[in-house]
Amino acid sequence: MKTIAVLFFIFSVLTIVNVYAQKNVVQYDKISMSNSKSLTLETNKGAQNDYSGIYKSYHESRKNITREELHTLDSTIYGEYDWYEVFTPETKYVYQYDAFGFNTSFFSSQFNIPDNEWINGAKLTYNVVADSMEVVCYHWDEELNNWYSVYRDIYLYDANSNLLEYREYYHTTQTEEWILSDYYQKTYNSNNQVIENVYFSRYYGEGPLEYNSKDIFEFDLEFKLIHRVNSYWNHDLGEWYDVSKDDYTYNEANLNDSILVSSYDLNTDFWNYDFSLTIFEYNENNDMILKEVFLRNSMELPYVLYEKYSWGYDYILNTKTEYTYSTDEVEWFCVGKTVHLYDTDDSLLSSTSYYWENLNWQPSYKYEYLYDSYSNNYEINNYGWDWSAMNWKQTSITDFSYNNLYYFEDLAFSRYEDDQEFFTQMLTERVYRSTVEETIKLKEKKMFYWSGIDNQAVEDNQITQFEIFPNPTTDFITVNSGNIETEVEFYIFDLQGRCLQYNVIEGGDNIQISDFSNGMYLYQIVSGNQTFFGKFVKE
């Protein structure tokens, strides 16, 4: 179980999204036709693209807002449906906040069906003080029944929320000490762009911290990046040696039109080995129409085209078409295209992909996006081309439910929440359905529980309103539903998760199990939007 918790935590970390960087959240794949204009060089603007820098800036911007004015995302529960479309929870995230709506801790847990309880997995705590932030990660020890420290990250900022230093520590259980393992240091220009990024580490993981690598960035008078030089530290000689260099050029519209990557020759002490050249072309609307990547193995050999992409635009139909290419080492030819259709607000309506075969474009797959009057993406439909029927066949549906009384500005949630990109209002549920044997069946569901919202209290899925008796039993069990008068669904599973019996019952009904073999069984009760679990023994 500890391994599962660790893997689950790693998965959580991989879903990091910089939610606080944007005031109005972009819809899923809602790509403006102008988004392909040029390469994004924002990575050289410093801590604004570091999640902790954004996190701190968000915290500073909300100092005049009390938690009572915000609705915080207190927890999410994710689960899957079985063949009978019975929902079983799997993972849960629980978040805690301070008075400003700042997320101060994050807990992950996994639902254990046989024991009918949530098992702790991992947690993160955040502490922002002045111009610094500390993040500590803990894992749960099932044997000792407590949390143990794993690693700690410390971020230091300047007055502009630029990240100046970043330190990584790991925790030793033998000495209970924090050991500094990695260290990053950044320097900025007057435009808050990184001009030097230095990385320190331990030589082969041992000894004191020392230089490892660094990047130097050079900008022109208009603050456009023109050079980047990467260097490594020679431990034996105690000096820096250059490794690679990127040179950027721009057209009259200040759009990046080329990147030349060179390698440094230590034998001649010259930049005499041009490794790659990337060329960009644009149309009169400054939309990118071509990207070509060339490589060569030495100065004596010519560049060889390695990758090629192109884009076409129809400003009347409001479409953007992406083309991909391949080569037979003699010539390049187009092998695929994807057509994106937008509405007048640049919201993506559909994406249709084709491949080239038999001198014609053959349909492959298609996505269609539906929006409500608040511009929330409430449904995504996925289709594959059915060659036998010669039409589109639906393969999956993703539905999103919202509480449209609350806007993005009213909400506070963790940067680990990956579904934020889908909404401008309060997201309450995401349901995924897919085609199984010609039928669209429920597959996954994720529920979002917000503070201060009716019917949004966090459920731990414990049996508090239902009682099963007798337990153990021999012939039948009776369900006491307390004050619930409506019909409920009752499922019985074996310990391998196979559904053995299904009933729609009311409180007080008897369920016959005399034909069951002796042993332990699991049951699930579905009442409205609530699900309860338990177990009983047949003797």
Q: Tally the structural domains.
A: 2
Give the end-to-end Cα distance, rounded to a whole number of Å: 30 Å
**SS-based class:** mainly beta
How would you sum up the global shape?
A: globular
- The low-confidence runs, each spanning 5 or more residues with pLDDT under 50, are 1-49, 51-59, 61-65, 454-464
Please, how many helices? 2
The averaged pLDDT comes out at 80
The biggest sheet, with number of strands, parallel, antiparallel or mixed sense and barrel status, is: 24 strands, antiparallel, barrel
- Strand content is over 45%
Question: What's the alpha carbon Rg, rounded to whole Å?
Answer: 29 Å
**Strand runs, count:** 32
Overall description:
- There is one protein chain.
- The strands form 3 sheets. This protein has a 24-stranded antiparallel barrel.
- The chain contains 2 helices and 32 strands.
- It is globular, with a radius of gyration of 29 Å.
- The two termini are 30 Å apart.
- Helix content is 4%, strand content 58%.
Summarize the SSE layout with pairings.
Elements: H1 2-14, H2 51-61, E1 71-81, E2 87-97, E3 103-112, E4 117-129, E5 132-141, E6 146-157, E7 163-172, E8 177-188, E9 194-203, E10 206-219, E11 225-234, E12 239-250, E13 256-265, E14 270-282, E15 288-295, E16 304-314, E17 319-327, E18 332-342, E19 348-357, E20 360-371, E21 377-386, E22 391-407, E23 411-412, E24 425-436, E25 439-450, E26 467-469, E27 476-480, E28 488-493, E29 499-505, E30 510-512, E31 519-527, E32 530-538
Parallel strand pairs: 1-23
Antiparallel strand pairs: 1-2, 1-25, 2-3, 3-4, 4-5, 5-6, 6-7, 7-8, 8-9, 9-10, 10-11, 11-12, 12-13, 13-14, 14-15, 15-16, 16-17, 17-18, 18-19, 19-20, 20-21, 21-22, 22-24, 24-25, 26-27, 27-30, 28-29, 28-31, 31-32
